[in-house]
Amino acid sequence: MFFAKKEIIELEDKNYLVLNSTVINNEVYYEVCEVNLEEDTLDDNKIYIQAIKEFGSLYVEEVKDNNIIALLKDALEG
Amino acid sequence: MKTGLFTNEKEETYFYNLLAARKLRDKRREREGYEVEIETALETCGGILKEHGSRSNFIEDIHKLETSAEPKSMSPPSSTREESQYAEQIAVLTTELKDFLKKLPLEITEDLGFYSKQITDRRQRRDDILKYENNIIELYPESEKVDYEEIFSILNNIFVSIAEYTREDTLEKEESIDFEVDPREVKGIKKAPESILRKANLIDLTDYQEKLAQPITRTPIMNHNNLSDELKEVDITEVNHSFSANPVSLITEAKLNEPLPDESISNVEKEEIKSEDIVEETIKAKNPEMDVQQIVEGTAEKQPERVEQEATFKKETQQLEDKDLITFEMPEDFTLTDLATALCGKAEGWIDIYEANKKEFDKIIQEKNNGISKNVENNEKLFAGLTIKIPVYELAKEETLGKTA
């Protein structure tokens, strides 16, 4: 687990709040939403990401596979 | 089609190996998802069948046999003896399953039919993906053992100039493979501010532990109903300043009644005191039945002892008499019972909180809840944002006193 619930993931131009996380098929997925810390607002749209560590850097990648997203929604809402 | 993107064949090979590796990874994940769905559906079927007295999970058994019977080579299905044996076993199990289903209610049969169709569908999709994966591996054998470090070093120049090749006419070859712009590098991780957590409805009791664990600021409630309490409140610091005596903060009724020796204040000072009409009036106003001069003489003379006694008395009265309070801003989605549970471990403690804030709460109930006080302790919105007073429970009080002592 690279991130914990209630943490802010800072990317170069965006920030994401970690809402939840789950493991499916030994892969960790995070449910996040974009936040604007300056305006103190958050986006209603939830997105799902995975974290990858390569060459000493941590990367996040959005999950776009609809089947995985459906499994994630089931797991996180259930 | 020659795109002109690559300066040599090696770059092109590595580039497509990279894309193939990504595609392969995505397809494997998708296939794993279908396999999970198949397993889940089989378990569900097994549960239903077992519940209705089936000797085994026929659907799972048939699925296993069908999977085993799938052709391992390009030869047609059931071409070998082994595969024909599987077919026979499948037929037997299918017949047995059909017979069993006849005994079951219609809705159960429909449920099993639904899951069977789902299993068949997911198997088909899984097999399609498997073929797709095999095609990728056949076309790009190196894609299974991609060394990203090597690829990035070789393709560095490609990535720099790739933006120039995003025109439509150069994308023909890439169309069949989805190129992902992710991943994005994480620059930092930090704790979310409370305001954001509130908006995301992520606040829970653990967020208040720190606040609740802070030392309690105690505000004694003084009861002004009788004379003795009034006397505890008499602050004659102002009086003492006027005749240069050391300040004394409190005088008790009991001590005022003690006979006081006439020693330490000089006659001159006594004259000054007598001449201070304002001082006399102030003390008389506080206690018309007492002798003002006696009060002043007594305090001036027995000062160190009195200070000590008064401090002890004050401490005792705080411990024994008054309920102490802390103030707390009620968050949204937080009920009085939640708060009582967090403070003393008992939901019933909300009654004490209510009593300590009765006046404000009654007003809010009247204004916002049409005067209905039923079940207000579980109302999450009614008192949100209100700064309320919380009585310190005995346990918390003892702990705090122990620490300060």
What does this structure look like?
The complex is a heterodimer of chains A (78) and B (405). Chain A is an alpha+beta fold. Chain A has one domain. Chain A has one helix at 66-77, and strands at residues 7-10, 15-24, 27-36, 41-54, 57-62. In chain A, strands 1-2-3-4-5 form a 5-stranded antiparallel beta sheet. Chain A is globular and about 35 Å long. Chain B is 59% helix and 4% strand. Chain B contains 18 helices and 4 strands. A two-stranded antiparallel ribbon of chain B has the order 3-4. In chain B, helix 1 packs across helix 5 and helix 2 runs antiparallel to helix 3. The N and C termini of chain B lie far apart (86 Å). The chains are: A alpha+beta (78), B mainly alpha (405). Chains A and B meet through strand 1, strand 2, strand 3, strand 4 and strand 5 of A and helix 1, strand 1, strand 2 and helix 6 of B.
The H-and-E topology of chain A, N to C, reads as: EEEEEH
Largest sheet of chain A, if any? 5 strands, antiparallel
Number of strands of chain B: 4
Main sheet characteristics of chain B: 2 strands, antiparallel
Q: Count every helix of chain A, treating DSSP H or I runs of 4 or more residues as helices.
A: 1
Number of helices of chain B: 18
- The proportion of residues forming helix of chain A, as a percent range, comes to 10-25%
The Cα radius of gyration of chain B reads 43 Å
Strand arrangement within the widest β-sheet of chain B reads: 3-4
What sort of overall outline of chain B do the alpha carbons produce when their principal axes are compared?
Answer: flat
Derived from helix and strand composition plus strand pairing, the structural class of chain B reads: mainly alpha
Oligomer: heterodimer
Q: Can you give the mean pLDDT of chain B?
A: 69
Fraction of residues in β-strands of chain B: under 5%
Question: How many β-strand stretches of chain A?
Answer: 5
Number of domains of chain A: 1
Morphology call of chain A: globular
Mean pLDDT of chain A: 89
Q: Span between N and C termini of chain B?
A: 86 Å
Low-confidence blocks of residues of chain B: 170-180, 218-227, 230-254, 298-302, 394-405
- Give the SSE order of chain B as H and E letters: HHHHHEEHHHHHHHHHEHHHEH
